[in-house]
Amino acid sequence: MPSTDPAAAPDPRAVFLRRESEVRGYCRSFPAVFRAAKGARLIADDGREWIDFLAGAGSLNYGHNPPEVVAEVVAYLQRDGIGHSLDLHTTAKRDFLLAFEDCVLKPRNLDYRVQFTNPTGTNAVEAALKLARKATGRSGIIAFTNGYHGMTLGALAATGNKYNRAAAGVPLSGTTFMPYDGWLGPGIDSVAVLEKYLDDPSSGVDLPAAVIVETVQGEGGINIASTAWLKRLEAAARARGVLLIIDDIQVGCGRTGTFFSFESAGLTPDIVVLSKSIGGCGLPFAVLLNRPDLDARWKPAEHNGTFRGNNLAFVAAAAALRHWWTGRAFESEIAAKGDTVRARLNAIVAANPGKKLTVRGRGLMNGLVCADPDLAARISAKCYQDGLIIERAGPHDEVVKCMPPLTIDAADLNRGLDILTAAVAAV
Ligand code: PMP
Fold first, then answer.
1. Assign residue 257 a region: left if phi > 0, alpha if psi is -120 to 50, beta otherwise?
2. Whose CA is nearest to atom 5 of ligand 1?
């Protein structure tokens, strides 16, 4: 209803508050109405600007509207390039596959079939679980504490978060949770726990089809699995004919410093799930990378979907791969920026001894861990007031999650870190 006070400005959010579903989430923490975005900056309708350390929850590794990508997308539209194509062959899809071979698979000596799924991460996870079950003839999946794999029923069954699980409304079945690296405390080898369960014929845990794991848990609070743990997990799975699915939806595409997050551990997963930043400029896109002999188990159209042919995303993805993933320069850039972030976060910890803070992270995925979750909430809120968008993660939302675009320039990176530093001091 229009205000009766002639001096009161209408709330720019009015239609959202009146009409949009209660399920909305991020906009409650960051309630501005955004109009534009460029690089690492978000601009609201009223002209206010923020530095973006949320980066589309990992979908904007190359920033907002990267010109190298946007130019290709615009040119494609202007020449009437096909927009929607189900899974027909298109020149845009061909170019994406060629770019993916040239920039990602060949330099890493990897051989995978690329499966296009519907463009959300959760749909790609569903497909991965289905394929693992089909290929092994077994139904069980092992997931890990604090893991996050999506909101549709199969992926949700592999997601730890109680609040999200409770919304399912049906029993979430087929998945058994095991302790992630470090979850049982330092010095406890949780792969040994998993092996014990799998090898004891009376443990109550049947041999599963697959384990699904994030090398760094994003939503779970930037929990980092060690190289040794990941290698032991791969070996434990392989020795028992259990498939290894790596969910690289959030931490792939360079977030941890290399294109795939598992490169530094030298893993060869059976199935890799990619989404989010593979879309080049935030366009919806997801793929599975399947070991070829597993992929051969699919029959045509068994995992179908209308939006497996998002050609704009193919164009954007190919442009991003060719621009950032030809050669190794981008990796050095990410490493240097990651060092800057961790140095600044460690300085925050040192300057605020009473606040019980710690730092953890890899590449440009770093977190300021607050012993008191309420402190994390106040830091994030203060940052928003002062021009920085930064989210929280972890089982109690206790980790302030520092995830700028990988392409952020030094000035914006330091400006964002200045705002964070001041916010921690102020709360
Ligand atoms: N897996 C991981 C690791 C994720 O971070 C997410 C999204 N946060 C998903 C799966 C689900 O992706 P989507 O939201 O696109 O369904």
1. left
2. 250
- DSSP output for 316-346: HHHHHHHHHSSSSHHHHHHHHHHHHHHHHHH
Task: Give yes or no: residues 319 and 352 share one domain.
Answer: no
Q: Is the Cβ atom of 159 under 6 angstroms away from ligand 1?
A: no
- How many angstroms does the Cα of residue 425 sit away from the middle of ligand 1? 32
Choosing from 294, 324, 354, the residue where a domain stops is 324
Cβ(279) – ligand 1 distance below 6 Å: no
Answer whether 391 contacts ligand 1 (Cβ < 6 A): no
Residue 5 has pLDDT above 80, yes or no: no
114, 59: one domain: no
Number of domains in the chain: 2
Mean pLDDT of 280-291: 98
For residue range 303-341, list pLDDT tens digits in order: 999 999 999 999 999 999 999 999 999 999 999 999 999
In tens, the pLDDT along 52-71 reads 999 999 999 999 999 999 99
Please tell me the distance between residue 249's alpha carbon and the centre of ligand 1 in angstroms: 6
**What are the DSSP E strand ranges found in 175-308?**
175-178, 210-213, 216-217, 223-224, 243-247, 271-274, 287-290
Q: Give me the pLDDT at residue 2, please.
A: 47
Query: Is residue 1 in some structural domain?
Result: no
The answer to whether 316 and 280 have CB atoms below 8 angstroms apart is yes
CATH code, 50: 3.90.1150.10
Residues 111 and 226 in one domain: yes
357, containing H or E segment: strand 357-362
Minimum CA distance residue for ligand 1 atom 12? 121
Of 267, 294, 324, which one is at a domain's C-terminal end?
324
Largest CA distance in the chain: 75
Mean local confidence (pLDDT), 385-398: 98
Q: How many residues does the chain have?
A: 427
Could you tell me the distance, in angstroms and rounded to a whole number, from the CA of residue 353 to the centre of ligand 1?
34
pLDDT tens digits, one per residue of 19-53: 999 999 999 999 999 999 999 999 999 999 999 99
If you measure from the C-alpha of residue 5 to the centroid of ligand 1, how many angstroms do you get, rounded to a whole number?
A: 44
pLDDT tens digits along 110-154: 999 999 999 999 999 999 999 999 999 999 999 999 999 999 999
User: What is the sign of the dihedral through the CA atoms of 216, 218, 223 and 229?
Assistant: negative
218 lines ligand 1 (CB under 6 A): yes
Assess whether the C-beta atom of 248 lies below 6 angstroms from ligand 1: no
Domain extent, residue 186, equals: 68-324
